Amino acid sequence: MSRSDEIGADEDILAALIEVSKTPEGRQGLSDVLADTLSLLPVSPSRLLLLRLRLLRNLLAGDEFNQLAFIESSGPSVVASSVLSFPSLAPDAARAALQALGNTALAGEFHRDAVWEALFPEVLRQFARVRDTGVLDPLCMVLDTCCGGEGGRRRLEELCHEDLGLPILVQVVNTASQVEHKEEWLEWLLFKVCVEEEKFESLFNALCSTNDVECTDSGEYNAKHAFLLGTLSRCLNTHPKEVTVTDSFAHHVFDVHKHAAETVNFTHRGTSPLPTGRPAIDILGYTLQLLRDICAWESSSSETQGPVDSLLQTGLVKRLLKYLGELEPPSTIRKSMAAGQGDDHPALENAKVCPYIGYRRDLVAVIANCLHGKKKVQDEIRKLGGIMLLLQQCVIDEDNPYLREWGLLAIKNLLEENEENQEEVSELEMQEPVITPEIANIGLKVEIDKETGRPKLVNTSDT
């Protein structure tokens, strides 16, 4: 029999074993095969290496006996050295190897420690360089799993070490941004690193590179920065009750937002929602969305402040009102103004425009969440003269889907149990000179509640 025929026969046998190993009973019955498979890995040609790795992956899926035998046979080191022995790391082999290692790490602390010791940091760096989404997902699974459990804190600190682990994370983000990877293992890993371990600033700064060709006009932001913030925003928005946001992370996000607001050109109207492909604009938007969801988070303990309370002390609301006031009015109001006074209205001459579709809505959403149940914020907006500005956001805007809904929520939160604000809105309605086209078209009015005798906001378009 020729060598080619031998390999073909082995392929048939391995294919059959892989099929059997897909069930718990099959994995248990193939326990003796694990040791032989491991011993053959280092001398396997590429065609057989992939099949043997897939067999190992299946054998290690939830089978405690096989998982322990794998560790006792130095399986993590054997798998890593076998895969990396080839001149070019094949994505399929790398994926199967990482899946096998991930299945092992899920078994417990002893297994996680063994996998980590065999892979960190050099092997993980090499896996992270493979630009393939099929490799990236099990890699993130291994990293995230190893950074959990009793020894997870130590391993997480090593992963965030500037010289040892941080280059791995930078490469992960770089690869993920290029292949547009959006799986949950990546989200959990980056959220754990950036928020729970409070390494957002370190990772964000490490993503800067003089070799980047995708950057803003200022050269300070690139696609990796935008991707990182977009991933963190998606994780927080999707799993608000499963993650904890720290004050440190909230402040870093706000700082990045302020800097992005100074970088973006507000004279060019955006024509697409996030992501726009322009890093500075995407960063502006993703930080706003993060702030929106951070400010929606409420502490479960009356003795513990949420990050929104910490943010409010830094002038968050005042700054967002400023940004909102600098924008041109919503499209509904602009049309009304144009019909009454023409396109040369003074209010439009130096006004900024939304750099992406949804920017105004996101500003209003953050303010609306900050207002919820916070009289100090309600009073601050009144003292800053922001009530009229917020009333103007309760309209339909072609460039800001759901602006009207967020505007109505902001007004509701602004007036709730705040007589001073309710009276000011009532007075605005009663003062004839203040009835501008934008207020007339807003679809809102203040009425006196017959039961309480207090002013209340009424949506006239629904009546």
TrEMBL record:
Pfam families: Atx10homo_assoc. Keywords: Cell cycle, Cell division. SUPFAM superfamilies: ARM repeat (SSF48371). Transmembrane segments: none annotated. The keyword Amino-acid biosynthesis does not apply. Residues 359-457 form the Ataxin-10 domain. GO terms for biological process: cell division. This is Ataxin-10 domain-containing protein. It comes from Urochloa decumbens.
